Amino acid sequence: MPPHQHHRMSTVRERASVSYLLALPATLWMIGGLIVPILFIVWVSFWTTREFALDNPLSLTHYIKLFDKPVYLKLVGHTVLQTMVLMGITLVLGYCMAYFIVGKVQRDGRKYLLIFLLIIPFWTSALIRTIAWIPFLGVNGVINQSLIFLGLIDEPIGIFLYSRTGITLAQVSFYTLMATGPVVYVMRNIPPSVLQAAQCLKASPFHVFWRITVPLTLPGILIGQLLVFLNVMADFATAAAIGGNKFAYLGNLVLLLYDSGQLPFASVIAVVMMVCMLAGVAMMLKVVDIRRLGAL
Amino acid sequence: MHWRTRQKAAKIILGGITFFFLIFQWFPLFTMGVLSFTGPDDGTTFPMRSLSLHWYREFLRDSFVDDFKPPMYRSLVLAVICSVTTAGLALAAAQAMRSRFAGSDLFFYLILLGIMAPGILVGLGMAVVARVLGIPLAWYSTTLAVHLVWTLPFGLLLLLAAFNRFDRELEEAALTLGANRWSAFWRITFPLVLPGVIGAALFGFTLSYDEFARSLFATGSEQTLPLIIFAQFDRQLQPTLYAIGTTTTVISLGMVGLFALLFRIVRRRAQTTSPGVN
Question: Which of A205, B15, B62, B201 is in Cβ range 3.0-4.6 Å of B87 for a Cys bridge?
């Protein structure tokens, strides 16, 4: 931005004191509705007893419980594994769709139509969309009926409902949007002249894609994968509805403990979840930085 | 293979993937809509032996409606409050960020944290705060608090985009011609960024109306619509749930359509009339 633009007139002056006043309500709301609750979870996770007293002595009692039974650590493993599977699927699927919509669809009208068809379910209830998957997955469900109709199987197979396959199918349909959206956004901002310049210099299409398109869309990929990672890590509703009581992830354990009144232990699991998330975010940032250096 | 053929093949494959995914994404919703008209003796999946409005009538039966009406009302009121608050706070926050005040970067990240923080953590945290401090959980206080944390970041991003695009020279002209900042903002700036405000309101409404994870922990005994649907689903899956699901989905889609219409009208107006003249 040229320097003179900093001194342009505007309805809000540079560093005007009124801007603090304008930002105050949002700041207070975010602190009260997000920061304080998270800090309380961390605090309560160190409580020694279940009693509700502000002077509850602090200790690692409930953290030690985590290692009592292998079940808890296994659950952490299952949750991380499921998250990684979802990240892999949504990365490929989401990138293919973004590349098609931005790079291959010529007419603007069709482009917007596809983007809208992709986004609209985001504005409907995730819970209803989960329930809508049920008639597909059962032994007599739509998937089994179609497979029999197509002659691919003779007898209905029970791998869909109350199974990891079913949960994964539903999650892919919910979360791929989060991987596609940021890539579409970033890809639309790549000036066509950059790609044309590379083509003029006789770069092969694959080279243009791998050395220019992918590095330039990396921020979009990163944000998308971050959203998928955080959401799948914390998802409990899909497993609760489609997995029956057979499959659980960390989120389901938090809910179970909360419902049975074990607030400190529920908080411990929530903290474990948060630590996994922070570790994942830190790792992703590192991986992307290294790749970016390689691409340049 | 010639590169042109190869590119055509890539287009067909990628298009196929996109097409397949869109069907995959929309098909369950359509199927639920179709199955909601299943006959009274049919189950929760195909085959449908007859068509009927049985499950909608079942849904409208007194005992059922008495259960569902109050949550429906609460969800709608909550969504409207959340919509207006999101639009208002996001507008103020975006206008504040234009001044690049000290700490505005930190402020931006604080709000973005609302998208990143998973619902289950925010909801559990609010429940813990309420229990420890002795605040009663209620849909109009604690639930609203956690819903807004989720909707505000979307509103802010939309408004920052709107402020990035709008023609600052119109604002400058008004100020040069002697308008004070207050009237220049409301008569010039606000109408120009109104599409962004409408977008923020849409996110505020639909995300709140459909929110489940945050509400599950932060709402007291007076439940919202997604909560009572989940409770019903937990008890027994009946085609009644398809009827309810189809109804609420139609409401959600109707709201999206309404906002899209409003968005078009406002944008056309901003393009055709020169603001400030009237």
Answer: B201
Taking 70 as the pLDDT cut, the residues of chain B under it are: 1, 42-48, 62, 272-278
- When divided into structural domains, chain B yields a total of 1
The full set of domains in chain A, from first to last, is 68-295 (1.10.3720.10)
Chain B residue numbers with beta carbons less than 8 Å from the beta carbon of A15 are 99-102
CA neighbours closer than 13 Å in the CB half-sphere of residue A123: 26
Contacts of A21 in chain B (CB under 8 A): 96
Question: What is the reported pTM?
Answer: 0.86
Q: What is the pLDDT of residues A162-190, one digit of tens each?
A: 788 889 999 999 999 999 999 998 888 88
CATH of the domain at B107: 1.10.3720.10
ipTM reported for the complex, 2 dp: 0.86
**Cβ contact (<8 Å) for A123 and B101?**
no
pLDDT tens column, B77-90 = 999 999 999 999 99
Question: Could you count the other beta carbons within 10 Å of the beta carbon of residue A47?
Answer: 22
Q: Do A11 and B181 touch (CB under 8 A)?
A: yes
8 Å CB contact of A38 and B119? no
Measured between CA atoms, the residue of chain B closest to residue A30 is B149
Taking CB atoms and an 8 Å cutoff, what residues of chain B touch A101? 18
Q: Report the candidate in B145, B139, B124, B118 with the shortest Cα–Cα distance to residue B76.
A: B139
Do the domain assignments include residue B35?
no
Q: Is residue B37 part of a domain?
A: no
